[in-house]
Automatic annotation (TrEMBL):
Species per Swiss-Prot/TrEMBL record: Jacana jacana (Wattled jacana)
Residue span of region Disordered: 1-22
Protein name: CO8G protein
Classification via PROSITE patterns: LIPOCALIN
Example of a GO biological process term: complement activation
GO MF assignments: complement binding
Length: 188
C-alpha cells in the first residue's frame, strides 16, 4: 500500500508551517535608518482590528518621532490625543532577521509584533507592515499630514497585496496634532 499522506517510508513528517503574511513582504532596499529618523504623521492604516472598526469615527491625529538607537534599533514616540489629552506612547523596535525588519516586544504571551519597513523614500512617505500572530496591518506615514494621490494609491495597492481592502482602510485627520505630553501622560 502507498504511504499515507504526510508519511514517507513509515515515518511521520510534519507539514511545513503556513507562510506568515509578513514573509511575503520585502523590506525596503537601501533603507537608511538615519534618514528614517525624525517626525512623521500617521496618514492611513489598514487593519481588521475590530476596535478600530467600531471606533473609526473617533480617530485622532497622530504624530510619530523616530530616533535611531545604537545604529540598529528604533525608539518610537507616538503622540496622540485621548479624550482631549495629549499622550506619548514610547516603544522600541529591536532589529530582527534582515535589514528593515524589527521586533516590538509587548508584555505577556503572544504580544510580540513583527514590523517591516516595506517602502519609503525617506523624504515624503513610509509604508510599514505590522503583524501580531497571523493578523497583519499596514500603516502609511508622511513627513506632512497629507500625501499625494500617487502615494495614497501606492499604499492602497500594498494593502490589497496582503489581503486587506478599502473596507478596513482608515485615514486619519490632518489637524489637531500633539507635540508633547506631560510626564503623567507618558506610557512606556
Amino acid at each position: 500500500a502507498p504511504p499515507a499522506l504526510g508519511q514517507r517510508s513509515g515515518r511521520w513528517q510534519r507539514p511545513p508551517p503556513p507562510q506568515s503574511p509578513l514573509e511575503k513582504v520585502a523590506a525596503q532596499e537601501g533603507l537608511s535608518l538615519p534618514e528614517l529618523a525624525g517626525r512623521w504623521f500617521l496618514v492611513g492604516m489598514a487593519s481588521r482590528c475590530s476596535y478600530l472598526a467600531e471606533h473609526s469615527h473617533r480617530l485622532e491625529a497622530t504624530a510619530v518621532t523616530v530616533t535611531v538607537m545604537d545604529g540598529q534599533s528604533l525608539a518610537i514616540s507616538t503622540f496622540r490625543k485621548l479624550d482631549g489629552t495629549c499622550w506619548e506612547i514610547r516603544q522600541r523596535y529591536l532589529p530582527a532577521q534582515g535589514h528593515g525588519r524589527f521586533l516590538l516586544k509587548g508584555r505577556g504571551y503572544g504580544s510580540k509584533v513583527e514590523v517591516v519597513v516595506g517602502e519609503t523614500d525617506h523624504r515624503t512617505y513610509a509604508i510599514l507592515y505590522f503583524q501580531r500572530g497571523r493578523s497583519i496591518s499596514v500603516k502609511l506615514y508622511g513627513r506632512t499630514s497629507q500625501v499625494s494621490d500617487a502615494i495614497a494609491d501606492k499604499f492602497e495597492q500594498r494593502v490589497r497585496a496582503v489581503g486587506l481592502n478599502e473596507d478596513v482602510t482608515y485615514y486619519f485627520p490632518h489637524y489637531g496634532f500633539c507635540d508633547s505630553a506631560d510626564e503623567s501622560h507618558i506610557l512606556d
